[in-house]
Structure formats: C-alpha cells, structure tokens
Model the fold of this input.
Amino acid sequence: MEQKGVTLWFTGLSGAGKTTISRLVAAELGEKYGLRVQILDGDVLREEMGQDLGFTREERFRNIRRAAWFARTLNEHGVTVLASFITPYRDMRDHCRKQIARFYEIYVKCSVDDCIERDVKGLYKKALSGVIPRFTGISDPYEEPWNPDLTVDTSRDTPVESARQVLAFMERIGLLPVKREDELP
Ligand code: ADX
Done:
C-alpha cells in the first residue's frame, strides 16, 4: 500500500529529549496543521507490547522492527508518525529507512555528561553503579548518525527551540500543508 504519511524518527541517548521534543512537535502538527499524528515511544511500546524484550542488541533490534512496522502501517493510513527510540545502531536505523517510504532521521544530540547530570529517570545513576547493565552511553554503545536528515542539539538548545527547528525542517522540505490565502481565518 502507498505510504501517505511521513515518519520522523528521533534517535539519541536516553534522556536526550526525544520524547519531550516529539510531544511539542505533535501538539503543533495537530493544532496548527490539523494533521493526524501518532507518537510511538520506546518506553510506552516496551511497556505495552515489549515486556518480552530486554536490551541486548538482538532484543533492541526486535523492538525497533516492531516499531518500524507500526510506523509504516500508520503512514499507510495517512498518519504522521513521531517515533522516539534510542535506536543505538546504524543498521537498525538503516532498516527503518528501508521499511518506511517517507522516513526522516532526526538526531537528538546530547552529551553523555549532560544526560548524566539531568538523569530525569534516575537510570544513569543506576547504570553507573552497575545496577542496570548494558545501558546505552554507559555500558552499551550508541553509534552516532553519520548523515541524519536533521540534528537538534539539546545540550545547547531548549526543547522548545529544538521543536521549532524540527517544524522549520518540515516546512523547508515541504512536509507541512501550505494554507492558501483564502483559507486563512
Ligand atoms: S532501544 O535501544 O530499543 O531503541 P528504547 O528507546 O525502546 O531503546 O527504550 C529506551 C528506554 O528504556 C530508556 O529511555 C530507558 O527509560 C529504558 N531503559 C531501561 N534499561 C535500559 C538500557 N539498558 N539501555 C537503555 N535504555 C534502557
């Protein structure tokens, strides 16, 4: 089936700001542009239908395969998907790019030091003390994207600024519906 919607795939470390930014973007896309939007989030998807999965490379890949399938299916139904998963390996992101016709990779860049300092969920502390094994950025790899469609830097910019950059990117490449003069209120 033709994929009518697009997927913005946010990749980056835990706590980098993927979820926060995707929520801000989703609100704007829905309210201002009337797009049908679905957020797919790593923590939520794992809770709802990934309890069988841990964090080995294979399990992460299975998680990402499921998410990519969902994104693709939603796109086929005209839904814009904002997916936020660490997606730590390049081959996983390449898989997504192949599966999803209109796929845009957004690197939510943040230094490990800043993530440790924020530690919103308290997971870095546990990872550093060895309570959580295989933690991305601490005891498990994160392969930085070589050629993302967009990078937002949350060590430097606020979530609102980053969300604006995402919307500006979407506008620049023609992903936002243009309102005609006579349609404006
Ligand atoms: S992915 O690697 O498969 O893409 P995903 O984005 O779904 O990861 O889930 C990451 C979330 O799981 C983190 O934000 C964090 O809340 C939680 N988590 C628990 N254990 C780990 C771990 N070992 N590594 C990374 N994230 C973990």
